[in-house]
Amino acid sequence: MRSTPWRAIGAVGCLLLLAGCEKRTGEYIPVPGSRVPGSMTPAPTAPVTSDAARVFYNAQLKPQLARDPANPEQPALAHSQAATLRFGIGPKVAGSVLAEVEPNPVIVKSKEDVPLTVVLHCGFCEPHAESLKTMTFRATTKRTEDVIFRFTPQKKEGQSSYGDKLQITIINDKTGRAYDRLTIPVTIGLAEATSANAAMPAIDLGRPAGSDLRVWESDVILYARAEATNKVTVEVQPVSDKLKTLLNGLALDQDGKRRVFNSGVKDADLVQAMSNSAYGAMAAVSMQGALLKKFSATGADAIVSEEHQLTLKLDPSELAGVADVLGAVGQRLHRHLFGGNAHKDLRTLIGRIEAAAAETGKPGDRPLRLTIVTDDLSLPWQYLHPQGADVDVNKFWGMRFSISVQRASNGAPGKGLDQDVFGKRRVIFAQYGTSTDKTIPHAEQQLAQMKSLFDEQPPIELRKVRSGAELLEELNAGRKEIAAIVTFLHASAGDADDPPYLEFNKGDIVTSDSLENLLNKVSPNEQLDFLSRGPLVILNACETGPARKLPHVKLEDALFQLGAQGVVVTEVSVWINLGHEVATQLLARLDKGEPASDALTAVRRELYKEKANPLDLLYVYYGDPAATLHR
Predict the structure, then answer these.
(1) pLDDT digits (tens, 9 = 90+) for 459-507
(2) What backbone phi and psi angles, to 5 degrees, belong to 3?
(3) For position 39, what pLDDT does the model report?
(4) pLDDT band of 510, cuts 50, 70, 90
(5) Which of 176, 355, 431, 604 could connect to 616 by a Cys-Cys bridge, CB 3.0–4.6 Å?
(6) Is the pLDDT of residue 46 over 50?
(7) DSSP assignment, residue 143?
(8) Cα diameter, the chain
(9) Euclidean distance between CA atoms 498 and 512, whole angstroms
């Protein structure tokens, strides 16, 4: 019983997929105190704005081909031919491939100029397409300068044409928040087709409103990208007053623009490994895939005993062994990015940021908030550790910072939040289908915790599912009402032949493809608003989000496509007991309204403080750093 209701489950929602490493109807579980109120509070309405004062996102593609009759609404580009995307904010432009998509009110209504970073993700482009540009929304003119991205669509063997999409994320450099994500479906065809660069009918993609106005600010933003010259560059944007005082002189030039620094990565093969090969940077500089095997080994090779794998409390020798394994990974990454080969001013900046973060390590301190924006590099940033003779658990970036990684390719965040917190809400709890599975006792404990959290709320329908078919049915049927999904299952990242999946039983799985395929059954506009409450997703399972390129859609990306605002994932396999510990602690903190990125860092620090265990570093957060259960 609590005096403060758990309201944001309707405003933000939470999709929790907690996991360890037969067709039935969902079972209704009554929640104590749940009842339908006598009246409904309507959702807030947007103020009326005159057409003359309205501004929009504009996007123009050149050169275009004649549109495919089978897809007349999609612009067409030629494969193997250089193309440009011109993007900006202002009055509606003829020929824009976006239809009256208005920027977030935080941008448009600002009384001061708003610096913005635009991130372009092009999954069908040849390597080293331009992906990061900066522009400024001028408060007086209500528009920005245009930025231009250059890229070349790839040719696919055996296909004369194919469909794909460009994804654009807009980030407010003042706060580190990503407010809007835009998707442009395109057709890629043969260059011989007739050029069509005249004004085209605009595509109605709906309005990704991004209307969450909660106060949240990053302290510093780090932009990292792989350049066409086979090097990795880094930019630093101070946000908080303290970090501005500390960093502005080095991070910005005399005109206040971000300086672009060369990192220590200057080798083409390493860039390729960090961005494309299996396990990204880990394939080049570590043995991440063997982490859990090292920790779980028995006999003379054991790092953590079987007993302590259950209790999670490590003795000093076990802690040293775990820290050394993670430290070898983190220090190698840190050396490649910020070591002796990096620009000296970048080394100084990173040192100052790390020193500022160290000052927030006392109990009760909010961790320094670090937002990482990248669309080229797939790295486990939480593992980074300064170079030096010793490994100190408190110096891992995942312990020092509240880290949020934002990428256009993962779709984060997608749209505005459903403000009708008093509407009908549904919570799904999914557990393994066989009662003898080792996850079941933990699942029952989590179910009991949820019942307690939901006590005396506006109407919440708690449903339990125990099969893949049930989960997909509930996602589809209740997608406008789903406020939370909590599951405790098994999972895998898949392989070259099989996509990633969640497992309910032997042979009973839900793949990332089957999750994404739910969008095939609804209209294009409904696809943008599938899970309309914008859930927070916690994929607490084995290998739900390894920092590497996969041959199939990742589980996290499939859920972003369905409408998630943020996703917590695991880099590698996790012990069942560790997953349960993270689940209960993280759920409790989010219920109190802690932002997801802050809460995850707090859970890491707490497990290390109480049990000398740093293995929460196997978790990482992508998406809107302010997402939570309660506001």
Answers:
(1) 678 889 899 999 999 999 988 887 777 778 888 888 878 899 989 999 9
(2) -75, -25
(3) 32
(4) very high
(5) 604
(6) no
(7) B
(8) 75
(9) 10
Distances (CA, A) of 176 to 371, 402, 417, 468: 6, 12, 18, 37
Rounded to whole angstroms, the Cα distance separating 261 from 171 reads 20
The answer to whether the beta carbons of residues 402 and 601 sit under 8 Å apart is: yes
- Measured CA to CA in angstroms, residue 424 lies from 142, 383, 457, 553 at distances of 38, 41, 11, 31
Q: What is the pLDDT of residue 273?
A: 60
Q: Are 280 and 549 in contact (CB under 8 A)?
A: yes
Instruction: Give the E-state strand segments of 152-285 in sequence order.
Output: 162-172, 177-189, 220-226, 232-238, 261-262
pLDDT in tens, 363-418: 667 899 999 988 667 788 999 999 998 999 999 999 999 998 887 655 444 443 34
CA-wise closest residue to 630 among 196, 152, 7: 7
Across 190-278, where does the E strand assignment appear? Answer: 220-226, 232-238, 261-262
Distant-in-sequence, close-in-space partners of 463: CB < 8 Å, separation ≥ 6: 26, 27, 28, 29, 426, 427, 428, 429, 474
In angstroms, rounded to a whole number, what is the distance separating the alpha carbons of residues 169 and 109? 19
Closest CA to 211 of 421, 46, 56, 55: 46
Phi, psi of 592 (to 5 degrees): -85, -5
Kindly provide the b/e burial profile for residues 166-192, where b requires at least 16 CB atoms within 10 angstroms of the residue's own CB: bbbbbbbbbbbbbbbbbbbbbbbbeee
Cβ(607)–Cβ(574) below 8 Å: no
Count of Cβ atoms closer than 10 Å to residue 224 Cβ? 22
Pairing of strands 460-465, 27-29: antiparallel
Whose structure tokens read 């980030």? 171
The pair of structure tokens assigned to 436 is 């003898």
When pLDDT is cut at 50, 70 and 90, the band that residue 538 belongs to is confident
SS3 percent helix, strand, coil of the chain, rounded to 5, is 30, 25, 45
Residues pairing with 20 in the sheet: 490
CATH topology of domain 12-22+412-623: Rossmann fold (3.40.50)
Amino acid 4: pLDDT? 40
**Which CATH number applies to 54-189: 3.30.70.120, 3.30.70.260, 3.20.20.70, 2.60.40.10?**
2.60.40.10
Q: What's the CA gap between 574 and 196, in Å, rounded?
A: 52
Domain ranges of the chain: 12-22+412-623, 54-189, 220-363+380-390
Count Cβ atoms within 10 A of the Cβ of residue 497 and give its class: 0-12 exposed, 13-18 middle, 19 or more buried: exposed
Give which of 620, 603, 578, 512 is closest to 20, Cα–Cα. Answer: 578
